[in-house]
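Lecture notes, unit on protein representations.

Consider one protein chain, 78 amino acids long.
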Amino acid sequence: MEIKILGSGCANCKKLEKNAQEAIQQLQKDISITKVQDIREIMKYGVMRTPAVVINEKVKMSGKVCTVEEIKQYIEEE
């Protein structure tokens, strides 16, 4: 499983990445996190507002910082 954090590297993007790392740690899963900062790559996902979370190439959320609990739920759905 792979989680991608889409965004420019702003404070919200960093907070989202931290929350994703915490969710993975709590679930004790072997999941990689990749940051995608290239605007062309972000646009390929149809995302117009960042930050965004992509899990297994599916956009799960965009335009806000997910909580740890929300990210855990998205992981469990996959």
